[in-house]
Design a protein that fits this description.
37% of the residues lie in helices and 33% in strands. With 186 residues, it is of the alpha+beta class. It has a single domain (2-183), classed as Protein Transport Mog1p, Chain A, CATH 3.40.1000.
Length: 186
């Protein structure tokens, strides 16, 4: 029962996250908003390749609907799945802080002790990074805006917990991805 409730809370959290960063904008091709060098070994997946990957790997079954129904370009990086998307959108200056605080409230409400949210500055842009680990899988999500607050680059990196240190590897992958991202329009 407790595991079922945690799974429902996690799905709710993921749906809220995806919705919170996509409501106000028109999606644009990623390469029209940012210049990005994906981590070594990143392979872009078609919709059919993604469907096959999540339907055949038991690591993805708890979040299969979220992975399949979220928008953006999908990449496989080793055993990780990365969804990224970009938007041309007017973002209020307070949006990142509000998002971080809203997730902190959500985490406390559901007593999520493996969830974190933080704001960092990387390459002259600010980014909210959200992390959640569960028994079998975890994810890092990020929502970034450029200095002019008129473009956003967002994504989620999903990882299975089947390998030791996957959380640490995922963190390094997200850090590398963000370090190798440059907004085309400051």
């Amino acid at each position: 029962m407790r595991l079922r409730q945690a799974a429902k809370q996690t799905k709710t959290l993921l749906i809220c996250l995806v919705s919170s960063v996509t409501l106000l904008a028109q999606q644009s091709p990623v390469d029209s908003v940012v210049q990005i060098c994906f981590p070594e070994g990143a392979e872009r997946l078609s919709t059919e390749q993604l469907r096959t990957a999540v339907e055949t790997d038991k690591n993805w079954s708890p979040i299969q609907d979220v992975v399949l129904n979220s928008k953006g370009e999908t990449y496989r990086i080793g055993s990780f799945l990365l969804k990224v998307y970009a938007e041309i959108v007017s973002v209020p200056e307070s949006q990142l802080e509000e998002s971080k605080n809203n997730f902190a409230v959500f985490f406390r409400k559901f007593n999520c002790t493996t969830c974190t949210s933080e704001i960092k500055t990387v390459n002259n842009f600010r980014v909210v990074i959200i992390k959640q680990d569960s028994k079998d899988w975890g994810y890092y999500a990020f929502y970034s805006v450029n200095e002019s607050h008129n473009s956003a680059f967002n994504g989620m990196l999903y990882y299975g917990r089947s390998e030791i240190n996957n959380s640490v590897k995922a963190q390094k992958t997200i850090e590398e991805l963000l370090e190798n991202t440059r907004y085309k329009n400051k």
